[in-house]
Design brief:
There is one protein chain. Helices cover 30% and strands 12% of the residues. The chain is α/β, with parallel strands linked by helices. Strand 5, helix 7 and strand 6 form a beta-alpha-beta unit. The two termini are 16 Å apart. It binds iron/sulfur cluster (2 copies).
Length: 447
């Protein structure tokens, strides 16, 4: 899309700020210990899992076009009285309005599959008429789990594969992780009504395996593969093996551009993107398994890469796997070569999150100490969405540091919100002003 038209589109999207993706950090517990995880996830996290009832109470503050007789509710409380009742009027499928955008609830963590009530979580979201999705490391995604979650209305899933064999296990801190993840991908890829998205965190070890990963995923029948890089924060900050050199960054871009040439987006994809840069029937959440705290690594609902509705997949079995780069930064000459649309950080514009402690933010990997907008235990989620999030919707404040005089600011708006953090004096700064790894535009050679 022409850059001028794209900016117009972005302005309109920002003005309308329709909530399309709601991430729920439903647990901080995790069975793995990933090298690139910026979070404090442990097998037993300090924060208890948020009770489902509390999340539902917050969810029900959102006016729901798919349900009759629902009206915005008050804030949640730790002793919520929301009934988990199968006979609720929200189960009435005739009340669904399939032709308008619907909210997608994305379960993230930690590892969502560690929640014993995961099936009920899905059912409760689905019976409200919303789609739901999950970001998982795949370790516990067995055939039996798959069947249970599909029956609970699972529409999309994202698994992380960060290398072949030992390289993946090295990243994930578990010698059996690769085997489990491959099995999970295999199970999900066979399910034609499930929108599967595989994401890979490319680091100095896995960059040499990109072709091998590509071939492996193709052989497994995967339709979408999204690559991203490591933000120099959290556990990854001081790990030199995590961060690509600028030359490797260019290599990554060239690889993605070349593979995108091979894929043939079908007409539905093209028209959807041209129309609105989003679909109503799919999700492309990236590696939110790593994203739990302010310091988490790249993770997001990359709306811009969502483009293949599950039903379309079934109708286009011959389609090549679509390879794309995540939403993480503006790329100058590589824009549109490595993604279906231009860089657009949708955080706070179409994406919100409910964090483990009830805080309301945008992408879960944004610095929550700086950018949280409220808390579901004291505030009405939808009112917060409507009336706050100003720092996300007007990014003029980001014209500072290296971004201040940057000619690309109008296209980039200071990059992804995940790059901004607090400084000891309380001000915010682009993390790459401290660490030049964050401006992808400059790293990949500008325009
Ligand atoms: S300097 Fe800032 S505004 Fe310019 S391209 Fe880099 S991140 Fe974007
Ligand atoms: S903050 Fe923006 S750029 Fe970063 S992951 Fe979220 S949507 Fe993408």
């Amino acid at each position: 899309m022409n850059p001028f038209l794209f900016r117009q589109f972005r302005r309109l999207e920002t003005k309308v700020h329709e909530l399309n993706y709601l991430f729920w950090e439903c647990t901080q517990r995790c069975n793995l210990s990933c090298r690139h995880c910026g979070s404090d996830c442990f097998t037993s996290a300090k924060d208890q899992d948020m009770p489902l009832e509390d999340f539902l109470k917050a969810l029900d503050t959102i006016p729901n076009p798919f349900c009759q007789n629902t009206s915005p509710k008050s804030t949640a409380s730790r002793t919520s009285s929301v009934k988990l009742d199968e006979s609720d009027s929200r189960t009435n499928s005739s009340s669904r309005k399939d032709n308008i955008d619907r909210l997608i609830v994305v379960l993230t963590g930690g590892e969502p599959l560690l929640r014993p009530d995961i099936e009920q979580v899905g059912k409760e979201i689905a019976k409200r008429g919303y789609y739901w999705s999950m970001v998982s490391n795949g370790f516990f995604y067995t055939e039996q789990m798959h069947r249970k979650l599909m029956a609970a209305g699972l529409k999309a899933i994202t698994f992380s594969l960060d290398g072949i064999g030992e390289n993946h296990n090295w990243m994930r801190g578990n010698p059996n992780s690769y085997e489990h993840t491959i099995k999970a991908i295999e199970i999900a890829a066979k399910e034609r009504t499930l929108d599967l998205d595989v994401v890979s965190c490319i680091n100095r070890r896995s960059i040499s395996q990109m072709e091998e990963i590509y071939q492996k995923l193709k052989a497994l029948g995967v339709r979408k593969w999204r690559l991203f890089t490591i933000i120099p924060i959290g556990r990854a900050k001081d790990d030199p093996q995590m961060h690509l050199t600028n030359e490797e960054m260019v290599r990554l871009m060239d690889f993605i551009a070349e593979k995108r040439q091979l894929s043939k987006p079908h007409p539905t994809t093209t028209s959807v993107i041209a129309a609105s840069d989003k679909t109503t029937s799919n999700i492309a959440a990236s590696d939110i398994t790593t994203s739990n705290t302010a310091a988490s690594n790249i993770a997001a609902s990359d709306k811009t890469t969502s483009n293949t509705a599950a039903s379309d997949i079934a109708a286009h079995p011959e389609q090549e796997m679509e390879v794309s780069f995540s939403c993480e930064g503006y790329l100058g000459k590589y824009e549109e070569k490595v993604r279906p649309v231009r860089h657009f950080c949708h955080a706070g514009i179409n994406i919100a999150s409910v964090l483990i402690d009830g805080r309301i933010c945008a992408c879960p990997n944004i610095d929550r100490d700086v950018f949280s907008q409220g808390n579901i235990y004291t505030d009405n989620l939808f009112e917060v969405w409507e009336n706050k999030f100003q720092a996300f919707r007007n990014r003029d404040w980001a014209r500072k540091g290296i971004c201040a005089g940057c000619k690309q600011f109008k296209n980039c708006l200071g990059g992804g919100m995940h790059n901004w953090h607090s400084r000891p004096d309380g001000s915010t700064s682009l993390s790459d002003l401290d660490n030049p790894l964050s401006c992808h535009y400059h790293r990949t050679g500008g325009c």
